[in-house]
């Protein structure tokens, strides 16, 4: 096989989350955005011995299980969903095969598999959407929606998106029409000039309360054709939204300023244009206050299924002290608190911790405490000994140095909730090496039409009496090959992309490693001669790389 050449083959399987595998001329080819059983035409983009990467050009024939129709009118272009032609039952089957296949490779011994639980809603299930401003083609009219499949620059206007409530589509359409008419510029990724960045819409599934937040730069000069001040422009937008016929009602209309280079919805300061900067949602009979930038499960009804599974797996909590690590706005803590003796939540985002405290008070729960900080550090300060632990870390999983601290508590049962099976697999290796065994596992589909799924695992201490046996555990005892030297270049790149939206090269990572005094292969990525010029890592990317180093405990 050769780079740039076109080949046809049948997709054998799709590994989590979106990695199609086919064999052509005895070589393994990896291609995204395909389904098992499809015959596809691909062009080779990267050639390595034994493994090629390719880009999909054309689906020559569909898989037997596919439907002829796409569910959504935007499906051909929008990069948001990947399973538009698969009936929902087939989506569940595929996710189950992928995740079980991956985890069964690392799980030792027998366990009870409780199957995949479907999302109660398969459309309009999201309570949050972040739309980006841009254009569909270079220098085209203003667009507002999702990134075009496979494109970093082009945006598809998704005004009939099936994942959100019709109210959110109405807000999108009205916002786009208003700023188009006013001829307002959007932030160009290449020149970093322009005003409009994102529209964040959150809508409580049970309460119907809506929060709309317009994210812009502070570049107001020459960013629109008219003579309005920024205040007047935003007042006009607010009035348009308030006049919309919606089934829900606005809790708040906000304006957030963000001048960062990163393509992520970040917050440099938020002004309330109408109402308040939070809304309420209800889950399992409890009320939760949610602020624009704190974590809250995006599928409210799916979250009830997820939390119910956690409650069932953790078992009897009466008279027990529970740690809810990575607690967000305190949802799991509060669902367990009515029965438990005490629940301690630990969460890194202060805004979420404040909301968790308010939520607990609102729900009349006085036996929960929430601590703001990094789990890695907070565990050293906590004097309380838990009886049970719930872990619900972000996509990257648990920090490798936090895992031994968690294991050392020696609790009888832990429940691990994961949105990324690959990081769960990595952490399960360590947890099993620390004396835990997987007792039960279930999948909960919170993301119909996409490749994502939540996994819930019950870990138990098995036969070991944790009160009598002190677990001697150190990083050296564990298989930490994945974390040698902190993290691989790919892990650092993935972390930076996910957390700041920036793409960084091996060259930039090695430059910052040298600056931080971290060992780098002696000549790795050094210029070939003294006068050869290498691009230098820009400050914004340096900051993001340093944050990744910190996360992986490298500095
Ligand atoms: C998947 S969310 C789970 C939140 C919550 N359990 C829920 O269901 O709503 C992960 C949470 O971990 C928090 N987080 C990320 N890194 C952290 C760290 N190092 N220490 C503490 N919390 C962290 C995030 O801010 C986020 O709220």
TrEMBL record:
Residues 1-58 form the TRAM domain. One of its GO terms (molecular function) is methyltransferase activity. Gene3D superfamilies: 2.40.50.1070, Nucleic acid-binding proteins, Vaccinia Virus protein VP39. Its EC number is 2.1.1.190. Coiled coil: none annotated. GO terms for biological process: methylation. InterPro entries: MeTrfase_TrmA_AS, NA-bd_OB-fold, SAM-dependent_MTases_sf, TRAM_dom, U5_MeTrfase_fam. It comes from the Bacteria. It holds the Pfam family tRNA_U5-meth_tr. The active site is at residue 419. Keywords: Methyltransferase, S-adenosyl-L-methionine, Transferase. S-adenosyl-L-methionine binds at residues 297, 326, 347, 392. Belongs to the class I-like SAM-binding methyltransferase superfamily. RNA M5U methyltransferase family. This is 23S rRNA (Uracil(1939)-C(5))-methyltransferase RlmD. It comes from Alitiscatomonas aceti.
């Amino acid at each position: 096989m050769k780079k740039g050449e076109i080949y046809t083959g049948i997709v054998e399987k799709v590994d989590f989350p979106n990695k199609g595998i086919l064999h052509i001329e005895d070589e393994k080819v990896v291609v995204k955005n395909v389904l098992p059983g499809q015959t596809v035409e691909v062009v080779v983009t990267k050639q390595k011995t034994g493994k090629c990467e390719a880009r999909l050009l054309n689906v020559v024939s569909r898989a037997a299980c596919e439907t002829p129709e796409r569910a959504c009118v935007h499906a051909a272009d929008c990069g948001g969903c990947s399973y538009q032609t698969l009936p929902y039952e087939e989506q569940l089957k595929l996710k189950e095969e992928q995740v079980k296949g991956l985890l069964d490779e690392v799980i030792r011994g027998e366990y009870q598999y409780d199957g995949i639980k479907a999302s109660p809603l398969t459309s309009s299930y999201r309570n949050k959407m972040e739309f980006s401003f841009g254009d569909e083609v270079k220098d085209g009219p203003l667009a507002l929606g999702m990134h075009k499949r496979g494109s970093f620059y082009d945006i598809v206007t998704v005004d009939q998106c099936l994942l959100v409530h019709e109210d959110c589509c109405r807000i999108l359409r009205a916002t786009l029409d208003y700023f188009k008419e006013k001829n307002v510029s959007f932030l160009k990724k290449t020149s970093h000039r322009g005003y409009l960045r994102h529209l964040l819409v959150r809508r409580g599934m049970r309460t119907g309360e809506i929060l709309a937040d317009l994210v812009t730069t502070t570049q107001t000069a020459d960013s629109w054709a008219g003579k309005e001040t920024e205040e007047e422009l935003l007042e006009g937008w607010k009035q348009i939204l308030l006049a919309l016929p919606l089934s829900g009602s606005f809790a708040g209309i906000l304006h957030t300023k963000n001048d960062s280079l990163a393509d992520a919805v970040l917050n440099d300061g938020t002004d309330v244009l109408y109402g308040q900067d939070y809304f309420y949602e209800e889950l399992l009979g409890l009320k939760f206050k949610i602020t624009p930038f704190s974590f809250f499960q995006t599928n409210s009804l799916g979250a009830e299924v997820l939390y119910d599974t956690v409650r069932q797996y953790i078992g009897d909590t009466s008279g027990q002290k529970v740690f809810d690590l990575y607690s967000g706005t305190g949802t799991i803590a509060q669902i367990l608190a009515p029965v438990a003796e005490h629940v301690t939540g630990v969460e890194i985002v202060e805004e979420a911790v404040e909301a968790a405290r308010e939520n607990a008070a609102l729900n009349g729960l006085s036996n929960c405490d929430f601590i703001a900080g990094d789990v890695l550090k907070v565990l050293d300060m906590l004097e309380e000994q838990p009886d049970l632990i719930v872990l619900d870390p972000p996509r990257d999983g648990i920090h490798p140095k936090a895992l031994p601290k968690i294991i050392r508590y020696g609790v009888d049962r832990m429940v691990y909730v994961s949105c990324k099976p690959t990081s769960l697999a990595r952490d399960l290796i360590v947890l099993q090496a620390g004396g835990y065994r997987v007792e039960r596992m279930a999948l909960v589909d919170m993301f119909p039409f996409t490749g994502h799924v939540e996994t819930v695992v019950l870990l138990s201490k098995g036969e070991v009496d944790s009160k009598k046996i002190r677990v001697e555990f150190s990083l050296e005892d564990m298989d930490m090959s994945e974390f040698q030297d902190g993290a691989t270049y790919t892990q650092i790149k993935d972390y930076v992309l996910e957390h700041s939206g920036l793409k960084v090269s091996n060259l930039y990572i090695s430059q910052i490693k040298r600056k931080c005094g971290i060992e780098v292969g002696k000549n790795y990525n050094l210029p070939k001669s003294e006068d050869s010029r290498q691009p230098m890592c820009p400050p914004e990317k340096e900051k993001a790389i340093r944050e990744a180093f910190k996360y992986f405990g490298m500095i």
